[in-house]
Amino acid sequence: MTDDNARNASGPPQTSTTNSLLCAAIELLRQGGALQEMRTDGSTVYQHSWGVALLAMELFDYSDLATVSAGLLHDAVERDIADLGQIEAGCGRRTAELVAGLTRHPAQPLPDYLDQIAKAGRAAVELKICDRLDSLQHARDRPPEARDSLFATTRDLYLPFARKRSPVGYSALTEALAKTDTYSS
Q: Is residue 185 a part of any domain in this protein?
């Protein structure tokens, strides 16, 4: 199934598929410590993971379980919660491919990382936008330096990235930045 077809899959998902993919993703997060691991904004990795998955469903209308599961697991490899083999075994190849595209490697320059995401396809691009949007929603709870860095990288790198690849994502990022005290157009 292509990104565009998966994105707008119609009809209710199969119950057994729903249970197996989403439960496997949730279990990987649980076993990997995401329920306890804290982010700089004070939320847990688990809370952030759900924020990204829910934004993907609400903003981009994703209903395919591979993409939603990838939203849940987008930080799993970077945070040593699960490896790609575990993700593929529990959630399937498509989820693992998306997570691989969203995984930033140590010391990888941000422009190279954004190119990697773009090559992984539309779903990866839109999941990354959801990741950034969820972080922006909790920016006020970050230390000032981390908050300023989040705003600057969003404005200088992620906004142009979204502008080229996702009109909906670009609009959502622009709106989110406009709500902050430090962003000026």
A: no
- Looking up residue 123, the CATH number of its domain turns out to be 1.10.3210.10
Q: Domain count of the chain?
A: 1
The 10s digit of each residue's pLDDT in 116-139 is 999 999 999 999 999 999 999 999
Q: Give dist(CA 53, CA 67) in Å, integer.
A: 8
Pick the closest to residue 45 from 137, 155, 167, 135 (CA basis): 135
Supply the range of the domain harboring residue 161.
3-178
Q: Averaged over 63-88, what is the pLDDT? A: 96
Q: How much is the pTM?
A: 0.88
CA distance 71 to 48: 10
Closest by Cα among 84, 56, 70 to 22? 70
Beta bridge partners, 44, equal 38
Within a domain: 112: yes
